[in-house]
Write the structure tokens for this entry.
Amino acid sequence: MKIDSIKNGIVIDHIKAGEGMKIYNFLNLDKQDCTVALIKNATSKQMERKDIIKVDCFIDLTALGYIDPNITINVIRDGELVEKYHPELPEKIVNVVRCKNPRCITTTEQELPHVFKLTDAGRQVYRCIYCETKAER
Amino acid sequence: MRSLISILDLSVQEIDELIAVANDIIDNPKNYAEKCHGKKLATLFFEPSTRTRLSFEAAMYELGGNVLGFSEAQSSSAAKGESVADTVRTVSCYADIIAMRHPKEGAPLVASMNASVPIINAGDGGHNHPTQTLTDLLTIQREKGRLNNLTVGFCGDLKFGRTVHSLIEALSRYTGIKIILISPEELKLPSYVKQDVLQKHNIEYVQTTDLEAVMPELDILYMTRVQRERFFNEEDYLRLKDSYILTPEKLQTAKSDLAILHPLPRVNEIAVAIDADPRACYFRQVLNGKFVRMALILKLLEECV
């Protein structure tokens, strides 16, 4: 299957097979005007099967590390690979996950943003800033 | 402008300073009688409370200040659907400091993000209750003369007891602390508290179901209420609740200078016969709560002179 290479944008590589759509939705790629390609079950030497997302523009990837810090982000400028990195765990994620604690203030005050902070980088634990409930992935 | 939402908002040095001020208030109450003259404390209690609200109010009056507020959500605009943010923005116009109790976890944090005066968390559901922890720490310091090198037993409901979790967090920052966790299997300390607090700070701890076996070791015994509604099996509850009723007989092997604490209210987990024992500190603990709240109000109202 042929998918055109991108000129200026990003390639999100080494996504666990089957997780591509989750990341597509997480990044709200359906709302992008530029070309976006989601490749499922591509062959991988490292992972056997993987998903890949190609986005022909630059988007905010700040919270991507929360979803999977092991994925690879390739930055393409003028058709050349200029940067390759794994996303860092963000210190804070806002309105990415919702607090599921029924006793949390966010359950009654609907306008409050759902904010989670990284409390244990080693175990990738995020807790709600209001009630300290652990984020469920 | 500072608020107090969690006990961890205070450094160990700040806690030690608050305890020192509270002790000075106890020794020299007249020196503090007019410290907050002209200042107003708002007590916003969205759920009922006896001890905490009256303690805050008594604390402010003894500092020469005044108090306004409400003691249940139904008598506030919350009943009309007003948000916590709007309520505290409004109250900030009338008061210099706010003590808030709310059934929802995190409500005082939301308040602190929106108020223009300091917020004191007076309990948010089963989450935080930092002024109870300050009360416990002042009591331990006054009874034992120190907050380090102590073996502290927590007995009863260690799973849902917010006061237990907060006090363990606070004590874990002092040296030479050994924690003994005495509870039925069903009410053991949650694993996240063990991981995030005890193991993280390398605190020595023991889990047991047998209070009498560990009694001789304890410097502090922190009793809590075993709650019937937590059990699925009535037989288990009946069997377990009796093992955690503290009686004079169970104290026979205890140290002569043991300090028995309880956040109150008590139901039947401490026999009334123990009240006369000098080792029973829980009513002195109530009194300490007022003094440490006075110290806290002074600290947060820095301009109080």
Remarks:
- Chain B touches chain A through 17 residues (CB under 8 Å).
